[in-house]
Amino acid sequence: MAWRTMLIAIAMVCSSCATRYQASPGSTEIAPSVEFAIPTGRELGYSIQVTQLITAHFRGQSQAFQAYVSISQEKVTLIAMDPLGGRALTVVATDEGIHTEAASIVPAVLRAGNILADMAIVYWPVVAVRRGLVSTSASLYEEGNERTISFKDHVVVQVVYDNPHEATWPESAHLHNFAYGYELDLRSTITGR
Fold it and tell me: Beta-strand (E) ranges in 10-96?
């Protein structure tokens, strides 16, 4: 649901920014009744900077946008650009909390926690993702080039990689959130470590 709101915001030109702050990364709902504790940057296990082309699909519509991601032991930073190259959204997550700067047209319902959760589900090691699900009865399975989160015998989130996902940042991944009805095609170019 958070990505749907982001699609609307990215389709518009940014004018001014508003700042939002959430104390501690905490958790977010990735499907009804499935809380996910957002892992920290240190849980990724390495530092990295990437440029991403993200194509989001929701209710028959698609929107592509560019994002810059930087992850270190201390923080996770994501900057999403609007179609004209301006900043639509900046999210910085540290141990102390999540700091968000968004264009004034970005609705307050856009939750940085869901963006960070999707990123972690796709890229963090399986042990960190499982730890994020520990307070629920959801299960995580990873085999070959696929990672699946199931709840009550239903797949709620599935990630498919072009190649088996091992302790590296994959160049290409596809996330499908069946519970909220959206898909993300993620193409990454590593720009630094």
Answer: 17-23, 27-31, 34-37, 48-58, 61-71, 76-81, 87-94
CATH number of the domain bearing residue 148:
2.50.20
Model pTM score: 0.85
Q: At how many degrees (to 10) do helices 112-123 and 2-10 cross?
A: 110
How would you write 81-128 as a 3-class SS string?
ECCCCCEEEEEEEECCEEEEEEECCCCCCCCHHHHHHHHHHHHCCHHH
In this predicted structure, the answer to whether residue 177 has a pLDDT above a threshold of 70 is: yes
Least confident of 35-39, 55-59, 184-188: 55-59
Distance CA 186, CA 172 (A): 6
Contacts of residue 68, defined as CB under 8 A and 6 or more positions apart, other chains included, come to 49, 50, 51, 52, 77, 78, 79, 81
> Structurally, how many domains does the chain consist of?
1
